[in-house]
Amino acid sequence: MFNKNRLSQAVLTAVMGAAISAPALAQGTDPLIEEVYVTGIRASLERAMDIKRESSGVVDAIAAEDIGRFPDANLAESLQRISGVSIDRTAGEGNSVTVRGFGPHFNMVTTNGRQMPNSSAGRAFNFNDLAAELVSGVEVQKTSSAANPSGGIGSTINITTAKPLDIGELRLAGSLKGVTDTEEGSVTPEISGLVSNVFADGTIGVLFAASYQQRKYEQERLAVDGWRVNQNIGEWHPEGPEGAILENRNTTPNTFIAQNYNISVQPTERERTNANLVFQFAPNDDLTVTADYMYSELHVDAQSSQFGVWFNAGGVSDVIINENGTVIDMYEEGTFDNIQNWYETVSENQSFGLNVNWDISDNFNLLFDANFAKSEQNPGGEFNQFQGIVGYGNQQRFQIVDGAELPAITDIEWDPNRGRAQAPFCGNANWGNILPPDEDVSHPTNAQQNCLDYAAANGIDPNAIDPGPSQAGGIAESLLRAHRNDIQHGNTVDKLDQFRLEGTWTEDNVVLSAGLMFTDQSKENRVMYNAHEPRNVVEQLAGFYGYPVLDDLPYGYTTIGSGFLDQFSGNEHLPQQWIHYNPQDYFDVIWPQIEEGYSQIPTEWSPTSYKIEEETLATYVQLAFDTEVANMPLHVRTGARFETTEMTSHGNGQILTGLRFTDPTSMAPVYEASGMTVITETQKYNVLLPSLDLRLDITSDLTARFHAGQSLSRPGIGDLQAPINIGDTRPQGAMTANSGNPALKPFSATNIDLGLEWYYNDLSYVSAGYFLKHIDDFIVGGTREDTINNVTDPSSNGGDINNPTPADQAELAMFSISYPVNGESARVEGIELAIQHTFGDTGFGVGANATMVTTNRELQTEDVNQRFAITGLSDSANLIGFYEQGPFSARLAYNWRDKFLQGFSQLQGGDAVIVEDYGQLDISLGYDITDNISVHLEGINITDEGYRSHGRYKEQLYEAISTGPRYAIGVRATF
Fold it and tell me: Across residues 22-27, what is the average pLDDT?
């Protein structure tokens, strides 16, 4: 009954708002059509299909089902329904996206065409920061355009919000939900509201939208923080237990041994607040001025209770190695650690924008847009992370049982017959060195003397050995001693000012655009950490080698049951109980024993702090016109973008002068007393980014596409810092360090896209596409073995905590220094297939898509020296079924992603992390009580899937995580 294109444009204008790059959409529409307002699943799919069909490049879209109602409660969860788009999850909720195998920092995310800052340490946009209720549409532009900001080799993702003059009348919308995560059990609220109206004969419009969400969930996690490669485990002596290795079935050139075993329960509370205020003024049909302000805040409070075991390759025995070189069984006289890690973060984002859209004449349009945005993490400056570790000398056995996805720790219960005993109470020979007299305080501190004084005051033999309880079994609470105390404050400030001026000339079927864009962005990542304090005792109070006894520490127990990580086999072999306490209580016990009034609160920014400043000036020109080829309409868009970028890197650095023992298994760096040194480096580069898009309408329903162009992604913010930071320094073991590289060049890609799309009815289509990306200057992790300032290793030549090797007799300390480098070229290519089909007037419909990708730079499993492989690359597929008829609607969505290389990012050792294939089933149901009021039920991950990643081989568990299903029920009203 209506012309489909005119109706779709009217609805799209009313609901999605006008994109900056399409000023014509902001104008009035046919008065006979603008009153038609269609909502629901089918309307959302039709709007998205029309955007895909009419676009010049390769674009997929998601549209709101109604004002303030997005198809999913989370933006990333909706985006994963698009072919070629996969998501990364945090706590069971999507927070960043991967497009065509290119991870979060390869995708440029804009809001209403504007680049936005973020509170993370890098460039990746966190979709958790923005509530879905404020969003009217999202476009995933998989091909580049001269008019778009650069930075997205994978895609440019544009988020649009509603505008009051586009709505054109009084509209009210609101919703109230109750949400529960089944693992945690609480019911928390989600509230949203939107009001929009026009005044003064439609020349003034005001819109205000806000939302508040609270979520409580519990994360279950088991991790092996690193699989160290080719460590000195020992020799194979098959005749008996005197050797470290009992059985060796290895058929590979490498061995892998678990470094740290960690199991945790983490209850978390999250609050998210979003608000958007828009003011528009259109005194006539030729001029529209829009001012908008957007605010979001994400508050996360987590308390993690952990059990941990640290292994030293040189100290293990009874070792069994399997065919892949993986240690699947080993025993060690080690430590029993009970860890409490509590943290609280606040991310605050603010953006103010001004847009002027002026039709100077019938042929010429001038667009000016300015955006002033800031994102900050922990703006209040409070210390937001506290970690305490208590433990004692113990024994444990690590095993990977055949067929089990989770490794086991056994033999951890106290056994007095093992011969384990608490070390001499004040016998740590290193006590006298760790806290030298401080000339700036009235009473110098000496830790060992304090230990002796404490022993005398409490009637304790300072050389006594505590053998522990005589009764076997359970936890030897009397032996618990302080091990570590960490306090940290992180602060990230990302400021971005962006200005855009664009002129567009239209003549018949020719559109010529030219513009300037200036972007000034600075990101500062700062950390205060007590490990960098001149008198730090982060790991010095290792009580199982000294003091204090934790008699006065209030504690309880963390206990897990049979349901813990029950998505994975082998969970029956996990430790069932460990000690739980408040880190602040822990600090209150240990600090007074060091010195009256003593505090480990940090006072200066740590050397991991840095600031990166970038200024980019872009000029671009773009031409679009319509012509014909063999009587078939051809739409052509071509253009080029030229950019000049100036980058300045500032970083805090410390001058390393030595290493010293802190306990028998740890060493700490010693720095020059002068403290921090600011290191500054600069660079400048120019890029030219041409692009060409062809859309050929073979018939009225069949469309072919071609794209060729250049795109880039800039180096990660953290990769550009200059100073070297010391990492792990273990006696007779690995010594690591890391640094950035301010000389890094951007990634650059040459892109080819081919596509064919058949739109065979109003809500049905089939599409197939092929893409090829050739990437140069790919940034990957590099490693070099090097010395630092000729510092020596006090553990070399037999040195230990009691007799460290003097510097003139010690060997130079060799560090494995990790740093980013521009690697070799790579090729990524893939095929995207999609179908959307409705079954006549039945109300039923289905959507399905699949993406298959390949690369010439895959991970070579046995090459442990490889540090160049494409990360995030995986096949993916989606299947969606929906029904919408009368007052009832339903949608069932299954998303699957194949395994992929996450990176060379293991916490210990930096080896490969492979995320296993994952599939998730979501459901939503809706019922319209009246024309204005409806109720909804949503279920996320209803089959309770878990996340698992591993090292080079599947038995090498890196991380297993579960947060369980999440459900929401609510009511929604629209007037």
Answer: 34
In the chain, DSSP finds a helix count (H) and a strand count (E) of 7, 47
CA-to-CA distance for 735 and 725, rounded, in angstroms? 12
20 and 109, same domain (yes or no): yes
- Asked if the bond preceding 548 is cis, omega within 30° of 0, the reply is yes
**Residue 430 falls inside a structural domain:** no
* Sequence letter at residue 383: F
Could you tell me which residue, 242 or 865, shows the higher pLDDT? Answer: 865
Q: Rounded to whole angstroms, how far apart are CA atoms 900 and 947?
A: 13
Q: Give yes or no for a contact between 4 and 36, defined as CB atoms under 8 angstroms apart.
A: no
pLDDT digits (tens, 9 = 90+) for 911-936: 999 999 999 999 999 999 999 999 99
Q: Which domain does 47 fall in, by range?
A: 4-172
Q: Which two tokens stand for residue 310?
A: 């640290």
What CATH number is given to the structural domain containing 90? 2.170.130.10
- Check: CB of residue 299 under 8 Å from CB of residue 119: no
SS3 71: coil
The C-alpha atoms of residue 108 and residue 115 are separated, in whole angstroms, by 8
* Pair 286, 385 in one domain: yes
Q: What is the total count of domains within the chain?
A: 2
Question: Residue type at 767?
Answer: S
583 lies in some domain:
yes
Q: Are residues 573 and 643 in the same domain?
A: yes
Neighbours of 594 (CB within 10 A): 22
Q: pLDDT over 90 for what percent of the chain?
A: 54
* Domain identity same for 143 and 272: no
Rg (CA), the chain: 30
DSSP state of 167: H
Residue 200 lies in a domain: no
CA pair distance 403, 134, nearest whole angstrom: 47
Identify the CATH number of the domain in which residue 664 sits.
2.40.170.20
Give pLDDT, residue 533: 59
In this structure, are 137 and 237 located in the same domain?
A: no
Cα gap 176→178, rounded to integer Å: 7
| Rounded-to-integer distance, Cα 49 and Cα 628, Å | 24
Nearest Cα to Cα of residue 165 among 204, 200, 129 = 204
Residue-wise over 779-789: b if at least 16 C-beta within 10 A, else e?
bbbbbeeeebe
Task: List beta partners, residue 278.
Answer: 207, 292
One domain, residues 164 and 302: no
Whether residue 869 is contained in a domain is answered as yes
- List the one residue out of 831, 616, 817 whose CA is nearest residue 724: 817
Residue 728: CB partners within 8 Å, gap ≥ 6? 734, 735, 736, 908
